Structure formats: C-alpha cells, structure tokens
Amino acid sequence: MFNVAVCIKPSAIHGIGLFTKQMIKKGQVIYTETPELDLHLSKEQFAELDEKEQAFIEHFGFFNETENHWHLSHDNIRFCNHATQSNITWKDNAYLVALRDITKGEE
Q: How far apart are the C-alpha atoms of 4 and 21, rounded to whole Å?
C-alpha cells in the first residue's frame, strides 16, 4: 500500500501514470508491498489464462524471477511506469523508496 498520497492521470510515458500529490524526500519509503492482497500465479496457472488475461498481467504485472511466479498488484502501483531515469527503486523485494526528491505532481 502507498505510504504517500498519489493519483493516476494521463501520462506521456505510457498512457496512464502514477503521480505524487505531495513532496517526497530522497530515501522516503513510498510503498510497502502487501502480498496477501496481490495475485500470484505459477507459470502453469498463467498458461491456462486466455490471451487477453495474459496480456493484461504482462502489461500491468511482472514475472518475479526470484519467486518463480507472475505477480499482479491489487492497487494502483500497477500504473507506476518504467523509466530509464527512475526516481524510485525496490528495496529488499518489499518496499519502494525515492532515489531523489520528487516534487508534488511529478510522475
């Protein structure tokens, strides 16, 4: 779940993006994973889904190599777009922190 206020809006990066509604300081924990609420599918379960369902999970989720399963988050973190110059990063496979100060309204 988010530890900061965010919203989803149109994005130039990927159509829909996640934007902060507050100033975030470098090193601040902005998101903590809630595994009990997220969807986890084995490769076999994923293969049983129809093509549209697979495409949705591939777009909004990811394959977790460490855990060997497909992951789809239950909340708006799925709108967090991938950028070559990222302003956040995963720590300990459990939470996201800011790599630098992030201004209010920034994607």
A: 8
The answer, as to whether pTM is greater than 0.70, is yes
Q: 93: phi > 0 → left, psi -120 to 50 → alpha, else beta; which?
A: left
Q: Classify residue 9 by its DSSP letter.
A: E
Mean pLDDT for the stretch of residues 3-17: 90
Using DSSP's 3-state secondary structure scheme, residue 100 falls into coil
Which domains are assigned to the chain? 6-98 (2.170.270)
Residue 71: burial class (beta carbons within 10 Å; 0-12, 13-18, 19+)? middle
